[in-house]
Amino acid sequence: MKIMSLMILGSSSHAGKSTIVTAICRMLYNHGYSCAPFKSQNMSLNSYVTSDGKEIGIAQAIQAMAAGVEPAAEMNPILLKPKGDRTSQIVLLGRPYKDIRIGEYYNETGQLLETALKSYYSLEEKFGNIVVEGAGGAAEMNLYDRDIANILLAERLNIPIVIVGDIERGGIFAQLIGTYQLLPDNVRKNVVGFIINKFMGDPDLFRKGISIIEEKTGIKVLGVMPYSHVELPSEDSLSIQDKLKHNSEDKPVNIGVVRLDKISNFSDFEPLERYAEIRYLNPADSFEDIDCLILPGTKNTIDDLNTLKISGFDRKLKTLIDKKIPVFGICGGFQMLGRVIEDSGIESGEPCTIEGFGILDLKTEFLEYEKTTAKVRRRSLGKEPILSRIDEASGYEIHMGKTELGEGVTEAFEGEGAVSPDGMIIGTYMHGLFNNENVVCALMSYLYEQKGLDFAINESEKNGIESAFDKLVHSFEESIDTCAILNHFNK
């Protein structure tokens, strides 16, 4: 079998590369092709744990699911998780490697590129066809000599390239034509098409624009993808801005998610968007009219906890608790709800002890540079009024630190988490909690009852991510020259 692959580069960050790769993976799967996604380097705080306990970017996990294959560390061999102060944690082949400043990171370009290539070829040997995703904008000329996600990788792989541009941002001609013309000659020669993404309105109105792009470059525009809200987990924090712009539909319940500086895995809460208005609130914002509060995960619990305290958020939190508003702490948010956090220097860079919000009698310690990464399924211990509606839940843990419960606190789930005596404050390390239909039903039915309303999940929404894949690939096949795409792959 001849192996063929395709690389999707972007004119900028958030151009929609991940969505396009997901669509191609699902299209190939539907047509009987064996394929796998690959992104050599990803910078994201939204991550996922594979079945063997490895951590990768959530976008590559979703793309693997679209392709009908099990997510694996080789699909995202280098994951960068920003910690602040120009420092990121490198997750290498699914395991924590080191914390590193950006200037020092570039010193490891050669080694990291070889690791990425080894991963790519292992996927190629196993699956044949690979859909490769670049990172950010491909035409960052000052980075060409160290760009292992775009230029250096494209030079080594020497495979066909499609460039994606985001027309919603404006300047689509500069995006696509400029990116194409600025690519090095040995990369530009492999460009076979453009995709215009996030178009609002009638695509026929852009026919002249397509002609201009094709005349200026000699490269075919493969199609114009409409802007659509497909319920796939968001890849990074830029997606929060989209939520603020486009999520204006009135719903009977308001859930506030604290918008931490280093928020991570906020994709945890996206399943709730179908039934509640999800508000990403800055600590200084008003929390008065929310019906439930979520303290999300964070890449740096101590830094974000200090910021919340300085803002006076702790007073707002106690007011909500006094009003019997349900509060969920997920991962780092769980740690913040506790009495104290002791850090040997792993989390904050130097040894320190900091008081938490003291809502739950918990003690968290950061003693070693090691991370818990595991897929889990846990039985609820049935505390009224919310956990009693849940039998068990599955998810995954990704966290530094270990948490011990004090005498006055009981576990929320068997062997994990914590819940207050009145059952209204729930802490857990489980990411993906709200991907469980029964958990969504438990929370939303309680919140709806407080409004005198009935709650039920619509039958049409029970297919979850598979339904989202179907909607995405239907839009892709209606809008894009899929024959031109399929020509770059072999069964």
UniProtKB/TrEMBL annotation:
Gene (UniProt): cobQ
A single MF term (Gene Ontology): catalytic activity
Superkingdom field: Archaea
The keyword Transcription regulation appears for this protein: no
Record-linked Pfam families: CbiA, GATase_3
Identification of the protein by name: Probable cobyric acid synthase
PROSITE patterns given in the database record: GATASE_COBBQ (PS51274)
Parts forming coiled coils: none
Keyword annotations from UniProtKB, A to Z: Cobalamin biosynthesis, Glutamine amidotransferase
Annotated family: Belongs to the CobB/CobQ family. CobQ subfamily.
KW Cytoplasm (keyword) present: no
Pathway(s) annotated for this protein in UniProt: Cofactor biosynthesis; adenosylcobalamin biosynthesis
